[in-house]
Design goal:
single chain, 205 residues, five-stranded antiparallel β-sheet
Length: 205
């Protein structure tokens, strides 16, 4: 399967029991999720690695007889043209001191993430992580001259096992294709984001 582009990336904060925090103060929004797609916002890169490693071969009778495979260690290198400042701090586990400042607090929060791309045939591809940590290792700055010097936001997401044993079969990563006849976007969103339910629309009177 080959893909092109990064359609979007969505985040959610989940509690220690694996439930979505749908609160604008305790979490990142009233719905609990944040689609990075505001004014001049959006993802420019989402490189997923660590899904599998070479197995370890066991030999017997002078030949390879068995392969043992280790656990997944998924990691996503992310880059954003821009991302909401306050929400990013919360996703990293920084806390507002009420005076305009944010400081790092441990333990880091549980972050769920969904990466959306498309196949060359136009089919939607989704890669989900029900639990993990978001890390901003540093910030790059450069002087403006006759040209503006921009520095995009670069982050690393480290995927962890789900907090609920029945999610993703206990694995840190799951992939979907909208071409599958059993695909259900609402069910996918609920599984990735700890029971998320889309707000129901109110019929116009």
């Amino acid at each position: 399967m080959s893909t092109h582009g990064v359609k979007d990336v969505t985040f959610g904060l989940i509690d220690s029991a694996g439930a979505l925090i749908a609160d604008a103060t305790k979490g990142i929004s009233t719905t609990g999720i944040y689609l990075v797609d505001g004014d001049a916002e959006g993802a420019t890169q989402a490189d997923v690695t660590g899904l599998e490693a070479d197995g370890t071969i066991g030999y017997a009778n002078d030949g390879p007889k068995r392969v043992s495979n280790g656990s997944m260690e998924p990691k996503v290198s992310l880059e954003f043209l821009d991302i909401n400042f306050d929400i990013l701090q919360k996703l990293k586990g920084f806390v507002n001191d009420g005076k305009g400042g944010w400081t790092r607090q441990l333990p880091k929060p549980h972050v769920a993430m969904l990466v959306h791309s498309r196949s060359y045939g136009g089919v939607d591809i989704y890669e989900g992580f029900a639990n993990g940590q978001l890390i901003e290792a540093g910030m790059k700055h450069g002087t403006d001259n006759n040209n503006e010097t921009d520095a995009n936001t670069t982050l690393t997401y480290q995927g962890l096992d789900p907090l609920k044993a029945d999610v993703f079969g206990g694995q840190p990563y799951k992939i979907w294709t909208s071409a599958d006849e059993g695909f259900d976007k609402a069910a996918m969103m609920s599984e990735v984001f700890g029971g998320y339910k889309a707000a129901s629309s109110v019929p116009a009177k």
